[in-house]
Amino acid sequence: MAKKKAKGPAKRRVGSWVAIAGLAVVAAVAVSYVLFDRFDAPRYAAGSLKDGNVLLITMDTTRADHLPVYGYENVDTPGLDRLAASSLIFENAIAHVPLTLPSHTSILTGQLPISHGIRDNEGFVVDSKVATLASILKSKGYATAAFVSAFVLDSRWGLNQGFDSYFDHFNPYREVNRDDIQRKAEETETEVERWLPAHKDGRFFCWVHFYDPHDPYDPPEPYASRYASNRYDGEIAYMDQYIGKLLAKLEELGLSDRTLVIVTGDHGEGLGEHDEPTHGMFLYSTTTQVPLLIRVPGGKQRRIRGIVRHIDLAPTILDFLGFPAGGDMQGASLIPMINGTEATHRTAYSESLYAEHHYGWSPLKSLTTDRHEFIESPKSELFDRLKDKAQLHNLIDEKESLASDLGDQLHAIVDRYTRKDLEGPRKMDADTEAKLRSLGYLGSPVPSTPDSLKTDPKDKLKVVDDVKAGAASLAQKDFQSALRLVVPVTQSDPNILDAHLIAGSALANLRQYDKGLDELFKVLAIQPDHTMALATIGTTYESMGNLKEAERWYLKVLDVEKDHAYTLVKLANLYRRMNEPAKADAYYARAMKPVETGLQTTEEAKARSRTYAASAEMNFGAGRYADAERDLEAAIELTPQGPDLHFNLAQVLEKTGDIPNAILNYQQETVVAPGNLNAYLNLGLLQLQGGNVEAAIACFRTLLKLQPGEPRASLLLAESLNLANTDLDEAVQLTRQGLKQLPDHKRGYALLSELYTKLGRNKEAAEASAMAGRP
Fold this sequence. Notes:
By secondary structure, the protein is of the alpha/beta class. About 50% of the residues lie in helices and about 10% in strands.
């Protein structure tokens, strides 16, 4: 990749700025915005679609240049292609933030992030003072509904304001599992199809959010095989199938001729360009330039190349319907641009505060014009968008005057539209933070200092990559890799809370409890009310057998969120262990009430399956094994390929003594979820206990292939080889490897003594025996 020159922020000049709708020079030829393909192209006026419906589809993490409608040839999107054939196609649509929640807030309010106040995915809640498109249309008599596909848009963040119905049902009871906090396009689209027929005779505004192109890229078949070399494109192709299905449903219901359809992306994806694998940190066009299609009933395809912005969508929708834009909207209707009568070029403000909020480094801000993009940071950048589409040549030294002028315009926008009367970020509970983390968003704010704010994120890419990779390794239960990645960060950048949190969690899972607690308490030293750290300390003490301490820390979580579902379950189970049945029953009842309500109100198969699984977990903790078995069998019938279901049923069957069926369910779990390490571990243990040593050896070898160096698997494989009296030298190495990570494991030293004795290494056998008997 070509090197980009870097320089500090452009010097700010006085003067030369105007209101945002006109932040540019007057166009020499106004119609240069529109590429007219036909002389009979329709023109529109305010109220052109009076009493019409609105369908807004947002595609998460979708780059414009990865769609055929924008010239890409490596993916098939027949649904979007059909829509585009009669749509306005905007070639330069710009997102204001490369993150899901703030970007959608701009789409739904017509306001810049500095105005609506949602600056990041974590901790921010839409203020009740901020009017949404849904609330405006509801006040005009519209039925309003939203269907979102990821927890990052959960109603707790406030975007549900104005919606009669807001489908955001995510399981709050299980430990973090991506399947519980996002849903595939098929599930979301099915819910929309259920809603539409009952509202086809009235006026409606329906927002549908698809999440599939977000990382990790795991499209279902046949897309996984068809796009094996580029699964990001496979996710887009899969999502397109359900966009097409939804649009076909509109036609089937006779709604197409009176429904305004808008399809856009909330932001793009780095895909490794500019050394950014995903999105959130930088403001290059890879993550800010998005697709935008608008189909007006009876319209024809036209391409429009002028800059348009997410904040323009709400005013445009209102204009088509004949309503004035909200008074706080900074966006402007696109109808003049569509008609070719707009006299000024628009410019787009974008920002990313991700580096500041999560690492304490400098935020980034940018201004995009038809020709250039200026990115302000400690090492500012300027790119020619026409000559340098990949943004590899930084012009900051060559065009200082232009950079300074764009910097002035950027500051003018910030000065004029930044609101200070809105509530700032709120503290997150542990469950919320964990869910966002599992979606790839780090959840721990980092205090910044004047010195840290001088750090350009471009200079810290390895730290960012290591923390994100460490979080992914922790989620995959690869604790050694997580430590290898984040421990150096805890030393070089000790204020990055997530590095300490990941290290503490990994160490606790490796049963190095004291070291784990030390890292977790470092988090609290920086942020004493860090709820995820509090919860993890609770689980660590519970694993250590210190139940009173575990209780104390779990209760601290409930001090933050009194009905935190997962902690209620943990406490119910904990009080069972502490032989306090009255308290256990009380917490069990609190946790079960929403589950029972969910089973009564939820019809969709996957949602019901998740609710049954949550009920089973609580019944299991309460010792109600027959009820837990019944719940899990119901969940499996609904979703036979659901991960963890067979694993959990196997644990229930172990409790009831049905070992043969427990073995069958562990085996089935390894088929459904071949990455479930605990399934191989438990299956191997049952095989070992049943005398099937060869089968146990196979299980533990598979586990070590999946997670090389896993200490329990190393010791258990060594134990199995010892029982089989084979490969004893390998067994010695495995035992020593396991003991490096579990130095207090007395049975490991006893096993090592037995192995040395069989090998005739009596001195070493005696030393190992002495370690086994050590107090």
